[in-house]
Amino acid sequence: MRSKANRFHVLCAKHIESEESLATVMFEEARRLVIEHSNIPTFSEILFHNLPDVEAITLKGGNITTIIFSSDTLSTLRIDKTGLQHLNITPGPNHSLNTLLINRNFITTLPKSIRYLYALSILDLSQNRIEYINLNWFQQMENLLVLDLSWNHIAQMDASSELRLGRLKSFFVSYNHLSQIPWFPIGFPKLERIRLSDNYWNCPWVASVRKQIWDRRIRLFDSDSACSEHSEGGLCCYDRVPVDVPARYELIEIEFQEQADGVGLEFKKVTSEPPPLMMAEQSDAGSERRTCDELRERVRGLKREKLALVKEKSEMEQQYSKKVAAMQETLRSVREDLEAAEQEVTRYRYKERMDLIERTAKINVETGAIGVS
């Protein structure tokens, strides 16, 4: 089956349910491809290789649960609400992919091979279920300008002291379970915009980074409206992480080992492997309920603030009107007093002049009488 040659092609793949079926569709000279409502469970590297001339792919809707990315020509990949659970990236340097947008899906973990996407300038992973991020994965993305991790379940971020995201300008992590971000904002030398609201920030951490954010004039584009404990610089913070936040790590695990003198115990630290998808799915309902409750509380708080502001505005307008009326009354009274004073002065001067004329006339009369004598 051969599609009409053009540079932009939209394919409704609702009835295409296998890689083989999609592989029969040819997209000659297509540069931008949108595939909607596909029910292909896996979008593999074979499909990417079958689209060598396509520069931008959008997968929208449908049911694509696994994607294995491998392409040396694709510059933009957008995956929107496909039910994606597993993202795999073929290891090896990739210098072509510039924009990666994965939104409204069910990813819980990122492959470490994401570090090979050297050319990324925009990475948007918002509205997923990611639980863990190592910021060093993005260190080799020298052109990365935007990193959006908002609306996830991230409870832990790691980074080494050498972290430098040299060109990153926008960093969004609102609506997660974070208590702090390591080496922030030191590791973000060009940062201009951040979103941090609706997390479980540690109060001392917020206090320590607040001055740095202010001194560097980094713009905070959001804030928390209602806080259950403390508020620091517009962000809710806590003395310790709330108990309903799922723990990211177990500190130790116990292994039983056979020894010559009996059963021995070995304690070892658990590494940062994320929990399996099944465990995440079991907690989804509770997490979603908590998210909905938090949103409802936020909406109620905003409504209360709006009512309070409207009331305050009305009271201020009334006070202003009263003050203006009082000032006008005072001004009228002053004018009346001034007019009365001017009239009094005029009468006084008139009387004084008449008295002077009368005395002068009297003196003249007396002087004339003396002269006659």
In short:
Helices cover 32% and strands 23% of the residues. With 373 residues, it is α/β, with parallel strands linked by helices. The strands form five sheets. It has a ten-stranded parallel beta sheet with strand order 1-2-4-6-8-9-11-13-14-16, with no helix packed on it. A three-stranded parallel beta sheet has the order 3-5-7. It has a three-stranded mixed beta sheet with strand order 15-18-17, covered by helices on one side.
Walk me through what this model shows.
- The protein contains four helices and 20 strands.
- It is α/β, with parallel strands linked by helices.
- Helix 1 links the parallel strand 1 and strand 2.
- The protein is rod-shaped.
Summing up helix and strand content along with how strands pair, one would put the structural category as alpha/beta
Largest sheet: 10 strands, parallel
Distance between the termini: 148 Å
| CATH class division of the domain at 8-238 | Alpha Beta
Shape: rod-shaped
Question: What keyword list fits this structure?
Answer:
disordered N terminus; rod-shaped; 373 residues; single chain; 20 strands; Leu-rich_rpt_typical-subtyp; 4 helices; three-stranded parallel sheet; alpha/beta; ten-stranded parallel sheet; Leucine-rich repeat, LRR (right-handed beta-alpha superhelix)
